[in-house]
Write a structure and sequence with these properties.
EC 1.1.1.86, alpha/beta, metal ion binding, binds NADP nicotinamide-adenine-dinucleotide phosphate, mitochondrion, eleven-stranded mixed sheet, transit peptide, disordered N terminus, N-(1-d-carboxylethyl)-l-norvaline Dehydrogenase, domain 2, NADP, Rossmann fold, 55% helix, 11 strands
Length: 398
């Protein structure tokens, strides 16, 4: 469909000026009057780095990093040792950002494990700012538990007694304390427990920070013993490299996160790709055509435009043929999928998804099992066709 209709519309549409251009230039281009309202920022009421933003009629408070320049962060945490436990995706991104912000941060991981070696490669020095988990927690005042969620549960019996009064416990996911009946992570009652959950991979936490930008993160307080927990969460959010911070609760963070990644972010979208591709193949279309109409055009052209400008803009920017059909079919997909999303949310909220994750990810051979599943996905025709299509992109041609 779109290889005929949408690109042509992007070139020819007169209602919305979208001349032939790359995604980047399209994003940077000034919107036409017809679409200006779609891309205009909501009303912003600044107050010392705290903004009240109208999100489609609901006012929410957003914290931005302007209120926390580097010098202020350094002063705020001058008596703290940030003990970062685990050096996976988030540990790497948050740890390096904290270090570059000039804060006193140490890393605690299993000696001679993969993370230990990676930390050394990133310049952490054994005995100086790289320790085993127990030593790091003993030295830390703010203990950042960035182990994998399954490992947080597994190691809790060793970690809990080290979390003595006066320390702060930090998470980047509400998973462990919210589902404490399943994870057994029952936090001590005499310490602050806070959350900073970056809305993206730890690699992005790092790359955006290095570009002078900042990822968006959620912040939350699970337990406020000192009265300063929220302020600490905000300061930590900025210190690990966030640009904006949205306030939430541990429960809401974990429910929305587990739901989203199983839904539109990965599981749902993969299911939709497969369903569309299979029907195209069953109806006689070639692999390249089926892949282009399902994935390539989506990820290379339309989704970035939707991300930059919104869905109404996208509808306005495509041909009238594409627009009519897409607007007609959208409610049918919504009606078909909503019961599945409802089932998914219930499965998240009841802890079924957590139990499944804990059971699976704590098996000794879980890595090998994932490797096998990923190999099966890699070998699906759609993704083998995708590999060939990607190799044709000019930037991938040597
Ligand atoms: N990844 C993301 O995009 C993302 C985004 C937002 C929030 N989060 C949250 O951030 C937290 C950390 O996630 P992550 O993705 O960065 O984790 P990860 O990459 O899975 O990190 C695993 C870390 O846990 C350690 N580990 C695993 N099993 C262990 C055990 N039994 N004993 C001691 N250490 C063990 C690993 O050390 P070894 O190398 O020694 O095995 C490694 O340092 C989680 O709560 C996650 O939900 C993640």
């Amino acid at each position: 469909m779109a290889s005929k209709t949408i690109p042509r519309a992007l070139r020819l549409s007169t209602r919305v000026a979208v001349p032939r251009r790359t995604f980047v230039s399209a994003v940077r281009a000034r919107p036409s009057a017809a679409t200006a309202s779609a891309v205009r920022s909501p009303v912003v009421v600044p107050a010392r780095g705290i903004k009240s933003i109208d999100f489609a009629g609901t006012k929410e408070t957003v914290y931005e990093r302007d209120d926390w320049p580097r010098e202020k962060l350094q002063d705020y945490f001058k008596n703290d040792t940030l003990a970062l436990i685990g050096y996976g995706s988030q540990g790497h991104g948050q740890g390096l950002n904290l270090r570059d912000n000039g804060l006193n941060v140490i890393v605690g991981v299993r000696k001679d494990g993969a993370s230990w070696k990676e930390a050394i490669q990133d310049g952490w020095v054994p005995g100086k700012n790289l320790f085993d988990v127990e030593t790091a927690i003993n030295k830390g005042t703010i203990v950042m538990n960035l182990l994998s969620d399954a490992a947080q549960s597994e190691t809790w019996p060793q970690i809990k007694p080290l979390l003595t009064k006066g320390k702060t416990l930090y998470f980047s996911h509400g998973f462990s304390p919210v589902f404490k009946d399943l994870t057994k992570v029952d936090v001590p009652t005499d310490i602050d427990v806070i959350l900073v959950a970056p809305k993206g991979s730890g690699r992005t936490v790092r790359s955006l920070f290095r570009e002078g930008r900042g990822i968006n993160s959620s912040i939350a307080v699970f337990q406020d013993v000192t009265g300063n927990a929220k302020e600490k969460a905000i300061a930590m959010g900025v210190a690990v490299g966030s640009g904006y911070l949205y306030e939430t609760t541990f429960e809401k963070e974990v429910y929305s996160d587990l739901y989203g990644e199983r839904g539109c972010l990965m599981g749902g979208i993969h299911g939709m790709f497969l369903a569309q591709y299979e029907v195209l193949r069953e109806r006689g279309h070639s692999p390249s055509e089926a892949f282009n109409e399902t994935v390539e055009e989506a990820t290379q052209s339309l989704y970035p435009l939707i991300g930059a400008n919104g869905m109404d803009w996208m509808y306005a920017a495509c041909s009238t043929t594409a627009r009519r059909g897409a607007i007609d079919w959208s409610p049918k997909f919504k009606d078909a999928l909503k019961p599945v999303f409802d089932e998914l949310y219930t499965s998240v909220k009841t802890g079924k998804e957590t139990q499944r994750s804990l059971d699976y990810n704590s098996q000794p051979d879980y890595r090998e099992r994932y490797d096998k599943e990923l190999e099966e996905i890699r070998n699906l025709e759609i993704w083998r066709a995708g590999k060939a299509v990607r190799s044709l992109r000019p930037e991938n041609q040597k």
